[in-house]
Amino acid sequence: MGAGHAHKLYRAGSSPVHALPPHTKLAAGFAFVVVVVSTPREAMWAFGAYAVLLGAVAAVARVPAGFLLKRLLIEVPFVAFAVLLPFVAEGERTEVLGMSLSVSGLWGAWNVLAKGTLGVAASVLLASTTELRELLLGLQRLKLPPLLVQIASFMIRYGDLITDEMRRMRIARESRGFEARGIRHWGVLAKSAGALFIRSYERGERVHLAMVSRGYAGVMPVIDEVTASRAQWSYALALPCAALVVCLLGWVL
Amino acid sequence: MHVPDGFINAPTSAVAGVVAAGAVAVSLRGARRELDERTAPLAGLVAAFIFAVQMLNFPVAAGTSGHLLGGALAAILVGPYTGVLCISVVLLMQGILFADGGLTALGVNITDMAIVGVVVAYVVFRGLVKVLPRSRRSITAASFVAALVSVPAAALAFTLLYAIGGTTDVSLGKVTTAMVGVHILIGIGEAAITALTVGAVVAVRPDLVYGARDLRRPLKLRVGGELVDAPAAEPVALATRSHRKVWLAGLVTSLVLAGFVSFYASASPDGLEKVAEDKGFAESAEEHDIADSPLADYGVKDIDNARLSGGLAGVIGVGVTVVAGSGIFWAVRRRRSDEGTDVSPVSPTNTNTGV
Amino acid sequence: MTASLEVSGLAFAYPDGHQALFGVDFRVERGERVALLGPNGAGKTTLVLHLNGILTGGTGSVRVAGLPVGKKNMAEIRRRVGIVFQDPDDQLFMPTVREDVAFGPAAAGLTGAELQARVQRALDQVGMADFQDRPPHHLSFGQRRRVAVATVLAMEPEILVLDEPSSNLDPASRRELADILRSLDVTVLMVTHDLPYALELCPRSLILSDGVIAADGPTGDLLGDDALMRAHRLELPFGFDPRSVPAGSGPA
């Protein structure tokens, strides 16, 4: 998981993908992943086609392949899991390089790897072409409960601040010669976490006071709204629609 | 435990999504009731705290470290509703911003980590607090147990979803054993850190610990320079006393039931236990050709298998029963207190004195 | 003419029994700049939170431009009393500077071009118009403090209440803020224990001590009264002589 900055994935740019309204991108990304997940795993070629589609989007968005691949590393724990599957799954077995592997396990591993990777790649593309602020506006536009969007935006606004406080506390600890080396130091770290919670909560109370002082009465005023033209929608939805065609072919063929 | 796309099939993911959406909606209303217009800033800040604290690495031994999941911590510090909201928002943002956890698996992730993790922790915690003597140490102990139970419970919830809509046919027994086994280990770390953190907060600002609101001292008034007891909110004190008996009875019943269940489960295998046994975890490991299985890395197979699976069933049984039992008593208690004193839980007038 | 702010007989105890105010009386006329001085724990913050009705329930009354602070006209009161809190990070809670400044007017119902004009004007007043689309946490501390002032100015308040405006500022930012405050055509109540800053900006001062107004007069006179200062735990920085500074420079 990312440290320090709340949004490490974003790459500034002025590509057509960057320029799309955020809610169209969110909807398109989500629809794409749904389509991918619903594809039968036996249609191996379909996943290749999906990868090509994503590659095309990445090219239009001018997101370099190296950047994309590096971000895929988040998946590693589940790759490890997928590698285990052929060994532990049930059913008919086959010999590969002298190892007895489960056929359905191999299929399962393929399924998890292919769909998981495509899912991560789609999310990474979304996050690297959409600014944080825009994502929140997009979620708001997609009718996520306003309170939830507010909580998320407060979390984003103060995430850095609190992470920073945590870092300062670590520096303060280390300046006094403390270095956490094992279980017996958990107490000290937990005390820091406790202090961090108190600071965060008290800040929440102060923020609330500041909001009330400026006329807040439980409803956040809508200041920015994003809108999308029909052309922008069709542009964004081209990706999931193309994927849907592939998926249907995958079921039929 | 962030599940990626494609791990659970589409229909099950959709159902989990609906469950998650429902629970989030309920939590939004619940949190609003507790925090009213302060919900957004407070829950936002607590979510940011959870997010930050998940990055705090705790060294376990030379070279390895773990980090907090935070479900139990959130439940105890800010209550179940706000806790569910905070963890859900953290998961949502991790999914969208860091591609950590699949977009279609968001429902699955929220269901097991935010809902099951938080609710189980809270129910266990409240149950223990009601039963244990009223002291700071009890709060810490209850936090420990709550976190310890909640992590494998979340793993169990995942296993359940996997059983319904898993895309691979690894036997349920293996998944259960691996998930729960690993997460019991994780749970111990989580429990220690959660307990220590809650203890640190209780020591300084007990009023901020949602789960320890009963611990508050009665108010004093300054009358002509002298400290005088403020008139206490009486009816609550009586009610608490009787509830405590109910809780005690509930917990004892749950434990008896749990013991019975685990004994029964190991004596005559059925259900999950049977699956585990059939699929080779109890006795027949070699026959099923998993002697070299990498699962052995988890350290579950090499130990005395029979005892392990028995113990595991016991843990699961105890966990499930305690949770179910406490849940029922919690519901009963809530209904009673709703009928009785209609005091808002955060109101400063609600000083549970006595006991 | 009605006073901008009129506080009379204000007493307040927190729910935990701690009593912070014991009958506060004072008036601030329209256009005045007044400093509210007092040691830590004198009840300054408690008083400030009464001015826009965040704390209520004690005895006594607060009137803003003749309007009593109470449940009935809370929205209007909060528009008229602009409080700038001590930590700008508490005040700037929106994702961008522009949205933050727009928050107050938008909550009051302004939209569209009118809202944008209000935001623009407020940011111009504090010289931060070029930072509209920046997230607040990317600004320097001094800039954040200025934006915090703008968030309040955007509501076109009757009176501007600043809680420790000079804390944590470097000398340059401190001077810039002073210039901004002097240039504003608005009543100012400045809560501080930065005595030279009070002398520089405010012709008149109040001393709040033990929950009552212990002194009220020209800032220079109060700061020059050693016995008074000692009695209320107020100390001037080493080597600072209030008599050497022309009191309350700038328009009163």
Number of helical elements of chain A: 10
Uncertain ranges of chain B: 232-242, 254-322, 331-355
One letter per element, helices H and strands E, the order of chain A comes to HHHHHEEHHHHH
Under the CATH scheme, the architecture of chain B is Orthogonal Bundle
Helix share bin of chain A: 55-70%
Might you state the CATH topology name of chain B?
Answer: Arp2/3 complex 21 kDa subunit ARPC3
| Proportion of helical residues of chain B | 55-70%
Tell me the fraction of residues in β-strands of chain B, as a range: under 5%
Number of strands of chain B: 4
Describe the global form of chain B: globular
Give the end-to-end Cα distance of chain B, rounded to a whole number of Å. 41 Å
Q: Low-confidence parts of chain A lasting 5 or more residues at pLDDT below 50? A: 1-6
Largest sheet features of chain A:
2 strands, antiparallel
Spatial extent as radius of gyration of chain B: 22 Å
State the end-to-end CA separation of chain A: 39 Å
Query: What's the helix count of chain B?
Result: 10
List keywords for this structure.
heterotrimer, A: 253 residues, mainly alpha, 2 domains, two-stranded antiparallel ribbon, flat, disordered N terminus, C: 252 residues, alpha/beta, Rossmann fold, six-stranded mixed β-sheet, four-stranded antiparallel β-sheet, 10 helices, 10 strands, 35% helix, globular
